[in-house]
Design goal:
CATH topology of the largest domain: TIM Barrel
Number of helices: 15
Shape: globular
Helix content: 25-40%
CATH architecture of the largest domain: Alpha-Beta Barrel
Structural class: alpha/beta
CATH class of the largest domain: Alpha Beta
Radius of gyration: 21 Å
Bound molecules: zinc ion
Length: 388
């Protein structure tokens, strides 16, 4: 299956690469950080804030949207883009991760997974087929498949094997459901290397926990299916950085070069740079906005906690290298005051900064890959970021 993805530059000393992924709603430059709009909203921010921060793609969540406001309602409203007034790209998570976060209330069968709503206890069934249908109703640009995610910090190989086997069977069913839902593939390569895309794209999810042999098997299996890209699921769940790096390498070494790789739920600067080095192209995480609401801001010289007394009279921006709306207009002193006064604007201004910080980090990573200095950029960035 043709993927509307072009690799533009490759680092000669690592697997890092830059590229462009074309969707119905525009171009996503990779490596990319995607802010998380779980419930059709990036918490505390508007679509205008996100556009101004340079966001090209948001991540939203099928599980949450299916339960509330319901995917049927989104379809009636003309789809998620219109509903939330966002004209960039949207990727939807299949909901597998959220369903497996509810171990007391879910039951896995060959057909799919039954679970109880965390809102009202009502019972529901997700299958590989109906998740594709729900994503179609949402109208997102990139759809992901229902998978079996293991949450345990130290999963047994037996459990990981069982989960992978079922994920593989579900992936084959999801690929068929996609072909039936998107009857005609409308992806046209253009002479300049770009693509015209008129249908939603399908990404498969690669599981295998922390076992490199299972990760390799999962990658090879997914590479044999008709998809436009690959998600790396089931990591960043408490494993060591070494286990994460080995697992990611086992995946990316066994995937075709010409399709994008997306690490689900990863979004701290150090982890993202490590994954880019191993050939990952796309990231999402709630972390930058979640910590913003607790007063934490990322800067090129490390993290700062704006509620600390030392910032009460500092008449300088959060990060003097940052070009975001917050850093252009407000001092640390003002932001410290807003946080201490429990003003909601504090959530917005710190979230804008943290999202822009990660989007700028990706811009700088892309530039360093293009000019052949990625590894030294990575080392310098991590050293400065971790110095405090
Ligand atoms: Zn800023």
């Amino acid at each position: 299956m043709i993927s509307p993805f072009t690799v533009l530059a490759k680092d000669t000393h690592s697997k890092a690469r830059t590229g462009r992924l074309y969707t119905q709603h525009g171009v996503i430059q990779t490596p990319v950080f995607m802010p998380v709009a779980t419930q059709a909203c990036v918490k505390a921010l508007t679509d205008e804030d996100l556009r101004n921060a340079g966001a090209e793609c948001l991540l939203s969540n099928t599980y949450h949207l299916y339960l509330r406001p319901t995917t049927k309602l989104l379809q009636q409203m003309g789809g998620l883009h219109k509903f939330m007034h966002w004209d960039g790209s949207i990727l939807t998570d299949s909901g597998g991760f959220q369903v497996y976060s509810l171990p007391k209330f879910r039951k896995i069968k060959e057909e799919g997974v039954t679970f109880q709503s965390h809102h009202d206890g009502s019972k529901h069934l997700f299958t590989p087929e109906n998740v594709i249908q729900f994503e179609s109703e949402i109208g997102s640009d990139i759809w992901t498949m229902l998978d079996v995610c293991i949450h345990a910090k130290d999963p047994s190989k037996h459990d990981a094997r069982e989960a992978l086997n079922l994920t593989k069977r579900w992936a084959e069913r999801a690929a068929k459901a996609y072909q039936q839902t998107v009857a005609q593939q409308l992806i046209t390569p253009k002479e300049d290397g770009s693509f015209q895309v008129k249908n939603s794209l399908l990404f498969g999810i690669i599981q295998g926990a922390i076992f490199p042999d299972l990760r390799k098997e999962a990658a090879l299996h997914m590479a044999s299916l008709p998809t436009h890209g690959y998600c790396i699921g089931g990591l960043s769940l408490g494993e060591t950085l070494e286990q994460m790096n080995v697992s990611v390498s086992a995946v990316t070494e066994n995937l075709p070069e010409g399709k994008p790789r997306y690490f689900m739920g990863l979004g701290t600067p150090v982890e993202m740079l490590n994954a880019i080095e191993r050939g990952v192209d796309m990231f999402d995480c709630v972390w930058p906005t979640r910590v913003a609401r607790n007063g934490l801001a990322m800067t090129g010289n490390g993290r700062i906690n704006i509620k600390n007394a030392q910032y009460r009279s500092e008449d300088i921006p959060l990060d003097d290298q940052c070009d975001c709306f917050t850093c252009r207009h407000y001092s640390r002193a003002y932001l410290c005051h807003l946080y201490r006064a429990a003003e909601l604007t504090s959530h917005r201004l710190l979230s804008i900064h943290n999202i822009r910080f990660l989007i700028r980090l990706m811009e700088k990573a892309r530039a360093s890959i293009t000019n052949g200095t990625f590894l030294s950029f990575k080392e310098d960035t991590i050293r400065q970021y971790l110095q405090q």
